[in-house]
Amino acid sequence: MLGREETGMTGTMRQAGAGTPRSVDVARLAGVSQKTVSRVFNDEPYVSEDVRRRVMQAADELGYRRNNAARMLASGRTRSIGVVTLGTALYGPTSLLMGIERAARSVGYAVRVVTTLEDDPGGLAGAVESLLDQGVDGIVISEPIDEGEAPIRVDVPVLSLGAPSAFASSQTLSTGVGASELARTATEHLLDLGHRTVHHLAGPERWYAARDRAAGWRAALAARDKQEPALLQGDWSAASGYAVGRELAADSSVTAVFAANDDMAIGLIRALLDAGRRIPQDVSVVGFDDIPLAPYTTPPLTTVRQPFDFVAREGLTLLVHAIENPEADLPPASDPPVELVVRASTAAPRPGGSEG
Amino acid sequence: MLGREETGMTGTMRQAGAGTPRSVDVARLAGVSQKTVSRVFNDEPYVSEDVRRRVMQAADELGYRRNNAARMLASGRTRSIGVVTLGTALYGPTSLLMGIERAARSVGYAVRVVTTLEDDPGGLAGAVESLLDQGVDGIVISEPIDEGEAPIRVDVPVLSLGAPSAFASSQTLSTGVGASELARTATEHLLDLGHRTVHHLAGPERWYAARDRAAGWRAALAARDKQEPALLQGDWSAASGYAVGRELAADSSVTAVFAANDDMAIGLIRALLDAGRRIPQDVSVVGFDDIPLAPYTTPPLTTVRQPFDFVAREGLTLLVHAIENPEADLPPASDPPVELVVRASTAAPRPGGSEG
DNA sequence: ATGAAAGCGCTAACAT
DNA sequence: ATGTTAGCGCTTTCAT
Fold first, then answer.
1. Record: contact B238-A114, CB cut-off 8 A
2. pLDDT grade, residue A20 (50/70/90)?
3. Do the Cβ atoms of A102 and A160 come closer than 8 Å?
4. Share above pLDDT 70 across residues of chain A, in percent, rounded to a whole number
5. How far apart are the CA of A187 and the nearest CA of chain B, in angstroms?
6. Domains and CATH numbers, chain A
7. Mean pLDDT, rounded, for B186-190
8. How does DSSP classify residue B122?
9. Residue closest to D1 C1′ by Cα
């Protein structure tokens, strides 16, 4: 008594429901071989129209659905990519995540997400480990932070969105949002308005995104031989912008500040306003991101728009290319559009009013 | 010549790298059976400390990692849950998503994400289908929309975050953020201040979240025998709040409005301000969500805080319970805390100034 | 406390 | 154009 033929009730409940149909069941009903069912579902060539139709109908009738685990095991591919992103509702990272999901689904890839906390040491490594355990064909690290760790070896292509990657990988890709150039444009806008110099309210030092923006700001200043004020340090939050703003309000020599994101710009403006300084008459401020609220703040915020969707789509295309053509060269990434959105938070400095 | 023993190079490159170690390799190196390796990695009982250590070391040495596809196939469980969420960076849905991921990971579940576009008919059904194809043990639908569709049959537990679900499922769960009660609190705050009545700027009708808030607003009004003004219709965006605000500005009889989210409240305020009305002297407005920017707007926004993290964690706990105890009753959900955050956008109406 | 054997439901290679 | 066969790397019985 081996009971080999009595498969059907195998003890444990399989795939959420005991009577789930298999491809063999479909094959039997359609009067073809199991392999043919597989062919139909994978859109392989050499299947007659007639057979294809019969198979589809049988599948429909039974409510057949391919078992992904079996596919993964047999093919060695998961058709899914993992995304490591910050576990907060920040506009930038979130926009990137949504863009990636959309792009991934459109090319037949599923998305697994793991979040990190900013103050969790080794969080990135843990997140990547977890994705590797789950099984993914590629990984995208969105807006990475410099954790100063030893590189981890990863066997799948890794796309770093917004920075160089700390992960050694067979293929390490990287796309930027062109943050540095965007930052430069923002700074130049202020300079063009006639400001003597521009202060910069930066994001946390460990973020590559923050460094890029600071670099762009420096470049703009240097190109016009402007004096470079001390960097103002924020943490992306409006609260940090507010804190910096309170200090800045006392210094009447500052007439223009470029904040590394819109949230900080808004916090900064609130503090300045509370201190009785007028925006933009007394001080101009430009943000970064163009969040949906930017046009509605007081005053409406001048900012640079980050092409999140563009970057997400382009990055994902690169990653999928690397996954599916392991040896091939990577297609060059095109430059994202730079867009400065001038609203009401910037103006020329008051003549002669800039010196305290 | 069957070559059965020559396994090792099986033609196609398996799992991103040909030489990936299997559990047999670990077993061999540790001098135990393959099953024992499995035992160790699953924390099963009846493994001696000595053996456990040897296995772990061998695994470490080889860089062994369990193959998830094989585990899923053999066990019939994916240990992952799917999340359907709106593909935008809205604060609420995003916060829920992040909260769910964190909670899921803490109990050993991976998260698959699929986004929907609001104007994509049948988007929800498609998203759920896609998750089912990928293989998930449970599904959470975050902030669902009433698509008026026929219910779809799903074989896994479904958790609806913020609304009744349109999916027939073996177990359909549902947790609310207590939106209705929150809305009621917000409205009462305005009434307590002395306003004759309160207008409501609602979210899109198809959203259950919008309906809940409107219901809470109505209840508060009814409880005090206040006249119920016509509903103002928005779409969650600040832009829609702005549009409504422009119309409202002309009507001096409105002194208090409760917006269904902070973004719309901010757009509304911008329009009112642009029209020369003062906030809160001429009109009070309260928002909903308590987004991080709320304290920094002009004026700082009075709003009700949604307990996203609480709801996400609690909902996920429920879902996992349903997954792992298919027959058991569900533990009752505790009520989320209600929190009104009073800032500067609300005040008592000017005496006698409320009639145009 | 440990091991041997038998699949899980597919895809891949090789027929035909 | 379609079928046959042999795994993919685990977990699950069931022995011992």
1. no
2. confident
3. no
4. 91
5. 24
6. 4-66 (1.10.260.40), 77-177+308-324 (3.40.50.2300), 179-306 (3.40.50.2300)
7. 98
8. T
9. A46
